[in-house]
Amino acid sequence: MMKINSGNAFFVLAAAILFLSGATVFAQDKNDKSVKNRGFCENYNYSSGDKVSYKEVRETTVRAGSLLNVDGGRNGGIMVRGEERSDVLIRACVQTAAATDEAARAMAKNIRIETSPNVRAENSADDAHWAVSYEILVPRSTNLKLEARNGGISISGVEGAMEFETTNGGLHLSDIAGEVRGRTTNGGVHVALSGGGWKGSGLDLQTTNGGVHLSMPETYAARVETGTVNGGFKSDIAALNVERTERTRGVRINTEINGGGAPIRLVTTNGGVKISSAVKNL
To answer: Signal sequence span per UniProt (predicted)?
Structure first.
């Protein structure tokens, strides 16, 4: 069963809206802030009793290194997107809630965003109702280490060694490569694969309480391991389908398709598994 601190629940809900939808719009005009940040932070509509919410976007650019380490803190999701660039653009959505607008704004001033050695937020006051989520643009070849507690993790367009984990939040991955390992306790796993096969040593994702959705071309070459202990199973790809009876408890597949290749592992304990032959935007 999912356990969330009730005092932080409204932050968790907002993180789910942004980071489980995967919908982010990137700007073309860097001088127009109203365009530049559209789609990021704007969908946060908090409510916590009679408290007044406040949010602001902070942006900074730092030098790219061999590893990007991001700590999402108690409440906050992390979205990383690879681009043809040589630096790292960090956008932080700072959110607070207090009895008055003035108090909520004052609370935000206590929050400091650190970028070295790790990206993380610090609050100089003992405030309960605050959160910081991140949208980060990186060079395509970047190693990642990401951690969240109450928030989702989304990665697209990145190739490298990646480790990430969240407790309450989904995992969304597309157009990635390298050595990738991730897990969530309470959240779904959504992966979109394209091309003819995995570039790198493999993909290993797991969730305890949540469904798994894998989208891949029917001609994709890989060793695929997937399954569930308690949940349904459906596959549009014949080579990744199994026959189930009423007595069947759980499903486990570990097989090579189209000649085999790098291991692709996505498993859940409590949740369904769906494999789609058409590549979709997740």
So the answer is: 1-27
pLDDT tens digits for range 45-63: 555 668 899 999 999 999 9
248, two tokens: 């069947």
Per residue in 85-126, pLDDT (tens digit) is: 999 999 999 999 999 999 999 999 999 999 999 999 999 877
Rounded to 5 degrees, φ, ψ at 215 are -115, 125
Distance CA 145, CA 159 (A): 13
Structure tokens at 151: 């928030």
The model carries a pTM of: 0.85
* C-alpha span between 9 and 157 (Å, rounded): 31
Q: Are 30 and 105 within 8 A, CB to CB? A: no
